[in-house]
Specification:
With 712 residues, this protein is α+β, with helices and mostly antiparallel strands. The chain is built from 27 helices and 24 strands. The strands form 7 sheets. Strands 1, 2, 3, 4, 5 and 6 form a 6-stranded mixed β-sheet that branches. A 5-stranded mixed β-sheet has the order 15-19-17-18-16, with no helix packed on it. The protein has a 4-stranded antiparallel β-sheet with strand order 22-23-21-24, with helices on one face. β17 and β18 form a beta hairpin. α2 runs parallel beside α4 and α18 packs across α22. It is globular, with a radius of gyration of 30 Å.
């Protein structure tokens, strides 16, 4: 574990004006809050927040971000509250810690629809303060570095999530070093054999060819000395995953892959960058189509550099990046450069982008997407694709992802122009609409009144914005036909599982999938934008497979000592999946409450009796009694059908209490035994979908008296 003094020294090295006292206080507070908690590896849990803070010091970030890293799990996993963190460390830190907590609670490895919504929440959280995602990325990086302590199945889930979301996000923010390390760590989990084979080939190559990097570096130094250019040269072999991705993209074996070495040349000024380019191209032959000038056309995250690939020594292809030292600082830290410090002063790097403006442009772009699928597509395109820069006939620059067509260009200008597009000219020559636009080309769109988008355009367009607009226009044209077809598909899907697609069921499915109406749900189903099984699962998630490890009742709660037993509080009847806390009673063990139970207010002045508890992760048995408050119609056979439905959802009824009887309605309390919160949610959804159920809610009570012998 890194001592507090060493952490302070890491911060002081780049920020002599740091508030050492506050960082030490945060260190001590985090250590106290996480006392008794351990990681999967057996180490004290607080080693993790310290390592996250240390990663952020490498980016020379401000005190608030470092303190947030030390405290980022306190509100989520300890008894510390938002108000307590705010009182001790200020509102700024409390808001950052709370933002990281909310990001942690997002389940980013869920289904496509949920993943899209989580992406939207992720960008909303980023837009409030970029430092939230910086802490989260550092948190994920340390978790990936120590992932071997987790169960193999959990490792795969986390690695896939890292590869799909966090690594490209780090790259989109300009933090290439973090993207490469996250990808390599995930690659090591997802394809250990593939990574090991690449590493073996590297070792073999080094034995056969010797130190290629040093020889090429020496050649470059010689050429730059001849041109009297002062520059630093950094050479390295590419990461295993980067090589693997090239092999897959080009369908080549390792032996045929030549550009596995990369070199960065750092100069004092921009003029020297182009002088270096000339010297390199004079000495070695440039590879056609492998030149990019991000100095004259910077990326939106502030990245500036010249990229070129040349045929170097022994015919090996070598990738060269040329930039100034200030550009390199931004290339290493990306958008985070806006928050970095040097010698106690916020960095004044002229190439660092304004993080607020960058986030605003990013979120504004995604705000135009109306549904989950299109939003997710737009996000992935924005994060994964390189950009091309083309021009309107008036000379305005339009940025598009690589592979974009005139259709994408038209919709980037305006949806109305896209919908009315009948043709295009590139550099004044008429071209098909499927033509791929290249850097520097001028594009002119030809429109016609009365033209409407064609279904084939979906195969031509590449941007999420264009695809979304095309689908929307096509839906309006064929809406009625799609609604009828969608209903037939829904009827077949629900009949297959023994259910009926009543109007109430379909309205509930639309609500669960966050679709504005029943007709819109059916239209998307009919147009194949939504799968019928997704609609069924939205209302009856209990039909999904559940292959988690089963957890027995005696080991359901984590945090008890060997001699302590527990019982669930009757006031809130906590279920696995809810945040919980224990209250100790003499002779009665520990009584478990939900963290928001009103009864807990009676014990605020007795902190010595509180026990920090967590539910064991896994599939619990259906033995946890919970009470539902139902209002149902007073018709023959209704109660029997409700009881049968509860049984179909694998929940056992332990008791029934009628609390109110009216000529048209009954109100009753149904005591059921459930597994966890997911089981509760699916059961309530199934009951809510029944036309005879007028209302349903979870029943809770407030216990105002304490059991005898309460104190230990």
């Amino acid at each position: 574990m890194i001592p507090a003094d060493d952490l302070v020294e890491l911060v002081r090295a780049y920020n002599p004006k740091t508030n050492e006292k506050l960082i030490r206080e945060a260190y001590d507070f985090g250590l106290l809050m996480h006392e008794g908690q351990y990681r999967h590896s057996g180490e004290p849990y607080f080693t993790h927040p310290i390592e996250v803070a240390a990663i952020l010091t490498e980016q020379q970030l401000d005190d608030a971000t470092i303190i947030t890293a030390l405290l980022h799990d306190t509100i989520e996993d300890t008894k510390a509250s938002y108000s307590e963190v705010s009182e001790k460390f200020g509102e700024e830190v409390a808001m950052l810690v709370d933002g990281v907590t909310k990001l942690t609670n997002l389940q980013l490895s869920s289904t496509e629809t949920k993943q899209a919504e989580n992406f939207r929440k992720l960008f909303i959280a980023m837009s409030k303060d970029l430092r939230v995602i910086l802490v989260k990325l550092a948190d994920r990086l340390h978790n990936m570095r120590t992932i071997r302590a987790m169960r193999p199945q959990k490792q795969v889930v986390k690695a896939r999530e890292t590869m799909d979301i966090y690594a490209p996000l780090a790259g989109r923010m300009g933090m290439q070093w973090m993207r490469e390390e996250l990808e390599d760590l995930a690659f090591k989990v997802l394809n250990p054999d593939g990574r090991a084979s690449i590493m073996r080939r590297f070792i073999t190559l080094q034995k056969e060819a010797g130190d290629v990097i040093q020889r090429i570096t020496n050649d470059m130094i010689t050429e730059l000395d001849k041109a009297e250019i002062d520059a630093d040269i950094i050479g390295r072999a590419k990461k295993p995953y980067s090589i693997w991705r090239k092999m897959q993209a080009k369908d080549q074996g390792f032996s045929r892959l030549s550009d596995i070495y990369g070199f960065r040349i750092l100069t004092a000024n921009e003029t020297d960058c182009y002088r270096v380019l000339g010297a390199i191209h004079q000495r070695w032959r440039a590879v056609p189509g492998r030149f990019k000038d991000y100095i004259s056309q910077p990326k939106s995250n502030g990245y500036r550099s010249i990229h070129t690939t040349v045929s170097g020594r022994d015919g090996r292809r070598v990738e060269v990046q040329i930039r100034t030292r200030q550009m390199h600082d931004v290339a290493e830290t990306g958008v985070a450069a806006h928050w970095s410090y040097r010698d106690g002063v916020r960095g004044e790097n002229p190439f660092a982008v304004d993080s607020a403006r960058w986030l605003r442009s990013l979120t504004e772009q995604f705000d135009t997407e109306e549904d989950h699928e299109d939003f997710l597509e737009a996000v992935k395109l924005e994060m994964y694709q390189d950009q091309v820069f083309c021009f309107t006939p008036t000379g305005d620059v339009v940025k598009l992802p690589r592979g974009a067509t005139p259709i994408d260009f038209a919709y980037a200008i305006h949806t109305r122009i896209g919908n009315a597009c009948v043709g295009a000219k590139i550099d004044h020559m008429r071209v098909p609409l499927w033509t791929r636009i290249k850097n520097g080309q001028s594009v002119e769109i030809i429109t016609a009144h009365g033209q409407m988008p064609q279904a084939t355009w979906l195969d031509v367009a590449t941007t999420g914005k264009a695809k979304s607009a095309i689908r929307r226009a096509l839906r309006e044209l064929d809406h009625e036909r799609f609604v009828k077809l969608g209903y037939e598909l829904a009827r077949a899907a629900f009949t297959h599982v023994g259910k009926k697609p009543t109007e109430k069921v379909l309205n509930l499915a639309a609500k669960q999938l966050r679709i504005e109406s029943r007709d819109e749900l059916l239209a998307r189903l009919g147009s194949a934008e939504l799968n019928a099984s997704e609609v069924v699962q939205a209302v009856y998630p209990e039909l999904a497979q559940d292959d988690r490890d089963e957890v027995s009742e005696d080991r359901a709660v984590i945090g008890l000592s060997a001699e302590q037993s527990f019982q669930r509080a009757p006031c809130c009847t906590p279920l696995p999946g809810e945040r919980i806390v224990g209250i100790k009673y003499r002779g009665q063990g520990v009584v478990v409450h939900t963290i928001d139970c009103e009864t807990l207010s009676q014990y605020e002045d007795q902190p010595e009796r509180w026990v920090d508890l967590h539910w064991q992760v896994g599939k619990h048995k259906a033995v946890y009694a919970t009470t539902l408050d139902l209002t149902i119609s007073n018709d023959a056979g209704v109660l029997g059908r409700i009881c049968s439905l509860i049984g179909e959802n694998k929940a056992n009824i332990s008791d029934l209490e009628f609390t109110d009887r009216k000529p048209d309605f009954y109100r009753l309390l149904v005591h059921v035994e459930l597994r966890d919160t997911e089981h509760l949610h699916s059961l309530m959804l199934a009951l809510q979908a029944e036309s005879e159920v007028a209302s349903i809610e979870r029943h809770r009570t407030l216990i105002t008296s304490q059991p005898a012998g309460a104190h230990e």
